[in-house]
Amino acid sequence: AQKITQTQPGMFVQEKEAVTLDCTYDTSDQSYGLFWYKQPSSGEMIFLIYQGSYDEQNATEGRYSLNFQKARKSANLVISASQLGDSAMYFCAMRRGNFNKFYFGSGTKLNVKP
Amino acid sequence: NAGVTQTPKFRILKIGQSMTLQCTQDMNHNYMYWYRQDPGMGLKLIYYSVGAGITDKGEVPNGYNVSRSTTEDFPLRLELAAPSQTSVYFCASSLQGDPRGGELFFGEGSRLTVL
After folding, report:
1. Is residue B91 scored above 80 in pLDDT?
2. Per the CB < 8 Å rule, is B41 touching A43?
3. CA distances, A24 to each of A6, B75, B89 (Å)
């Protein structure tokens, strides 16, 4: 079974500091994709970053980077220079390569303190 | 750009009633999905479709039905609503071969309460 684990239900970070949100995954597929989505209190789902299983370099999108450690099956999200607007739920997701089915973790609620 | 549009945004149902959540996308995406999100939880896949006429079950399909007669539309049918179906429902779409890994594009969500 495909599984995504986010072990941090909630986290606090000081404004302007960096924070790492953990994500581990379990799959026997060779080809897969890893994603992070942000869900603010308004409820919409916002795409942040994508990493393919064959990508050798870690993905980066502005202040977001994905620390991909394939052997450890981890795909942690790093947010640099946190802002108050980063306070939200963050979901890690995995796409199975052959079927385009996406599986989500239980999420991490991030609170940025001024 | 409309993207993925879901209706209704809010609905209250009585136990045993039925309803259809509508979803349409204008991006010509081949994949479409229905997820449910229970309070404080992640998203669970209900059904998905790889193209018109092709659907398959996800993780939590019981109590739901779908159809995909066109590329654009993917309605979700709730039969005999139960309190356990109280949730927020998200429709999403994706395009195979998209350079961003086939990212999911989400609708705004539909909040359903069954009393």
Report:
1. yes
2. no
3. 7, 33, 25
